[in-house]
Amino acid sequence: MKFLDLARVEIRSGAGGAGAASFRREKYIEFGGPDGGDGGRGGDVVAEAVEGLNTLIDFRYQQHFFAKNGQGGMGKQRTGADGSDIVLRVPVGTEILDEDQETVIADLTAPGDRVILAEGGNGGWGNLRFKSSTNQAPRRANAGQPGVERTLWLRLKLIADAGLLGLPNAGKSTFLAATSNARPKIADYPFTTMHPNLGVVGVDDAEFLIADIPGLIAGAHEGRGIGDRFLGHVERCSVLLHLVDGTADDPVADWRTILGELDAYGGVLSQKPRVTAMNKIDALDDAERQARREALEAVAGPVHLMSGVSREGVSDVLRALRAQISDERVRRRVDAEEDKPWRP
Residues near 290 by Cβ (< 8 Å), separated by ≥ 6? Predict the structure, then answer.
């Protein structure tokens, strides 16, 4: 399945049906009078967050969503049928933006969240509504209200508890593959990750969700690289894991590069809790580990040592992340033995 986190849609609610101008004419009925019914109401355009989706790819192939119009009123005081609604099923975490791509109309962050994007028009009144003591035979009926037509943008921000940050080839995908069942692409060249990946990791008796986004490079806030396009996916995270390549020429400079891009990006990312870990320590001897760790701790504070390949120190990093996530967001880890059905 291809990943798509931004889509443009054209929507239109249904128009209300016209009221009927009708009179009762039956044999042996001396006084007929008006009996035109009202028109039906037009359908709404609704967005609903559903589970099981993590991409907006469906909206690449269908961008137009039009609700049904209401049926016109009829004689014998019959009201027209209402137009059926149309529902846009979107992933949890989808923001709905106005045409300017800045005004947030709705933020669907929980399964079942619904919002009406365009209300259908009301049906017109039939001539029965206009009957009065001074106007016994009205010949007027109202037309239905037109529907609402608008252009909207759907922007997906993945719901994750922790987010991975780092330069390309810092080992983010390796870490995700080592700690979860996710299978991101791993290679020895930059930008192997082209779209965000999600993985459920477990530590002690808890499970939480980690998001891996493409690597950032210097100047990302100016449009260089692709990582800045996906920073929105870690805006909802409780904590960020900043991975630094321990085998790089200057790990401190790499750390400062990412922090500078977070500050330039703005928003809440630069203020979020961070756990810093120096990765790839399996390629360093003890003296190199200590020297590079001390240099990094001088500017970044406490630094964890880990290796996604050998899994050394991975559990300590996961526990540090878990400590920054509220109990409401994590899930209790279920052992395989507990899943087995009881048998005599």
Answer: none
The yes-or-no verdict on residue 337 having pLDDT over 50 is no
pTM, whole model, 2 decimals? 0.76
Taking alpha carbons only, the member of 221, 231, 214 closest to residue 260 is 221
For residue 9, which of 68, 46, 88, 64 has the smallest C-alpha distance? 64
Strand partners, 98: none
CA distances to 2, 92, 229 from 56, rounded to whole Å, are 9, 11, 15
* Distance of alpha carbon 59 from alpha carbon 342, whole angstroms: 45
Write the pLDDT tens digit of every residue in 10-34: 999 999 999 999 998 888 877 788 9
d(CA 95, CA 115): 11
Sign, CA dihedral 216-222-225-229, equals positive
Please give the Cα distance from 113 to 100 (Å, whole number): 23
CA angle at 109 for the pair 108 and 115, rounded to the nearest 5°: 20
How far CA 271 is from CA of 29, 35, 154, 262, 336, in Å, comes to 80, 67, 26, 9, 38
Angle between helices 286-300 and 251-265 (to 10 degrees): 30
Is residue 111 a contact partner of residue 49, using CB atoms and an 8 Å limit?
Answer: yes
Residues in the chain: 344
CA-based nearest residue to 279, from 229, 314, 325, 327? 314
Q: What is the pLDDT of residues 85-125, one digit of tens each?
A: 999 999 998 999 999 988 999 999 899 999 999 999 999 99
231: which 2 tokens?
Answer: 């920073």
